[in-house]
Write a structure and sequence with these properties.
Layout lengths: L6 H10 L9 H10 L3 H5 L22 H38 L8 H8 L5 H7 L8 H7 L5 H7 L2 H15 L6 H15 L20 H8 L6 H8 L2 H16 L2 H16 L13 H19 L8
Helix pairs in contact: 4-10, 4-13, 10-13, 14-15
Length: about 325
């Protein structure tokens, strides 16, 4: 069992690991750890750096300053905010698409699909989750008025994002109409949940996806039709778990959101990449992994912001 270390002891521990304090003083690092972050989370970004395998520094991190960890953790935080904005847009668009399908379905009254969906939930998990929010200020009136016989336009406002995806899948099974691509939405759900729970996204930027899996053809085509992205860059970056998840998120977003709204969001992402992410480029110039992922994502976002590409959505 590892001992709980004080902030002073953590700085000593980091120095023993080869982490330097040249860009940020030890006192500034201690203040950051005390007020803004905690060591386990910050230390996870070390995975983007290699350890020396020769010389006096064997086993210690090469060219890793505390400032680089701090910068990655800060960028990660802002990126999670951006991702949550995108996911909220996606969730709203899915609800609109589903409700439009139900409205135009002559076999539906808005209640029938919900009854069928809840009937196959033998453990009443969804209803229990809804009931658990009855004391909340924002949903209690809807729950009290309709529970347990919900019309779909109320139901979608009370269920989780995951249950919304299950409902879309159930609707497809029932009526043969696809609302979303479930395989892609599983990836979107994962990165959404990670962002919502403040999990690190950039701590292992070049961790590869399972060797038994291949990037979805729709995602590959999405990137293939963009300008200035080479075949080797596409293949190399789509095999990384984070990059693949983020690109999948952008692909799903691009297919669901109206042109005016997504143009605004892409411009915001472009500004984020050009300003906040690129605020301290010298910190990462010796790290080809970080630079490679940044340049790939920047090209993708630049393509989307300019909309000078051709894309095929199923």
């Amino acid at each position: 069992m590892k001992a709980l270390l004080s902030v002073d002891e953590l700085v000593i521990h980091m120095k023993e690991k080869g982490i330097t304090f040249n860009e940020i003083t030890e006192d500034e690092a201690k203040e950051f750890l005390t007020k803004n972050n905690y060591y386990m989370k910050l230390a996870s970004y070390r995975s983007n750096y290699v350890k020396c395998d020769t010389g006096k520094r064997t086993g210690k991190y090469c060219k890793l300053d505390f400032a680089y960890l701090k910068e990655l953790s800060t960028i990660d935080m802002y990126l999670r905010y951006k991702i949550m904005d995108i996911c909220l847009d996606i969730e709203h668009a899915i609800k609109v698409k589903l409700l439009n399908e139900v409205t135009n379905n002559p076999d539906e009254d808005g209640y029938n699909i919900v009854r069928k969906f809840l009937a196959q939930d033998i453990h009443f998990r969804v209803l229990k989750n809804i009931k658990s929010h009855k004391s909340g200020e924002y949903c209690k009136d809807l729950i009290e008025k309709y529970y347990p016989y919900f019309p779909i336009w109320v139901f979608v406002e009370l269920i989780s994002f995951g249950d919304l995806l299950y409902l879309c899948s159930f609707y497809e099974e029932t009526y043969g109409v696809r609302i979303v691509n479930n395989k892609l939405m599983n990836t979107v759900r994962d990165i959404r949940n990670a962002s919502a729970h403040s999990n690190c996204l950039l701590n292992q930027m070049t961790t590869e996806i399972d060797s038994t899996k291949q990037p979805n053809n729709e995602i590959t085509t999405f990137i293939k039709n963009m300008r200035n992205i080479s075949t080797s860059s596409r293949k190399n970056n789509l095999k990384y778990q984070f990059t693949y998840s983020f690109i999948t998120l952008l692909y799903v977003y691009d297919g669901l959101i109206q042109e005016t709204s997504k143009k605004k969001r892409y411009t915001e992402l472009q500004s984020f990449m050009n300003t906040r992410v690129n605020r301290n480029p010298d910190y990462f110039k010796s790290n080809s992994k970080v630079i490679g992922v940044y340049e790939f994502l920047k090209k993708v976002i630049d393509n989307l912001a300019k909309t000078e590409y051709t894309i095929l959505h199923n």
